[in-house]
Amino acid sequence: MASQESILQGVNVLGKVDQVHKKILTPQALTFLALLHRSFNSTRKNLLESRKIRQAELDRGVLPDFLPETKHIRENATWKGAPPAPGLVDRRVEITGPPDRKMVVNALNSDVFTYMSDFEAYPLQPRLSWPYDAALFNGVWAADAREL
């Protein structure tokens, strides 16, 4: 396997990297991102192009449908999916909320089985920038590290 140093050749972080960002942008994380990009960038580009083509079809009025290769599943009344993972079996009480530190602390102090941190629907401020997203991530990271 290639060394971390050789994998990181050509990887540049263009924005300011403060203490919060350094927790996220570790050499290991950057190596992982570099490997992901180099492994899947052509697939990602193909999927984005397919999305444009599909959107044009939808814009022309073509309706979505099931994939023909899944017809046997829809026609088999006895077919069942895999059971949920053990940690997801009991989802009677769960909470979903923004990933800011205050909400994460509230979730940790609540009597729930599951907390889902929702980065996409954070309601208090529009998602404008990487520094803002990194600050949100820091709350979740601190909870995982048992620092809250």
Contiguous helical run count: 6
How are helices and strands ordered from N to C?
HHHHEHEH
Largest sheet: 2 strands, parallel
**Helical content band:** 40-55%
Overall pLDDT, averaged? 84
Number of separate strands: 2
Give the termini distance in whole angstroms: 38 Å
How would you classify the helix and strand content by structural class? Answer: mainly alpha
| Beta fraction | 5-15%
Describe the structure using short key phrases.
148 residues; extended; single chain; 48% helix; 2 strands; 2 domains; mainly alpha; two-stranded parallel ribbon
Write the layout of secondary structure elements.
Elements: H1 4-7, H2 19-24, H3 27-59, H4 71-74, E1 94-97, H5 101-109, E2 114-117, H6 130-144
Parallel strand pairs: 1-2
GO molecular function: malate synthase activity
Pfam families: MS_N
InterPro entries: Malate_synth_sf, Malate_synthA, MS_N, MS_N_TIM-barrel_dom
What does this structure look like?
The protein is mainly alpha-helical. It folds into 2 domains: 15-81, no CATH class; 82-148, no CATH class. The chain has helices spanning 4-7, 19-24, 27-59, 71-74, 101-109, 130-144; strands at 94-97, 114-117. The chain has 6 helices and 2 strands, in the order ααααβαβα. α5 (101-109) packs parallel to α6 (130-144). 48% of the residues lie in helices and 5% in strands. 5% of the residues are buried. β1, α5 (101-109) and β2 form a beta-alpha-beta unit.
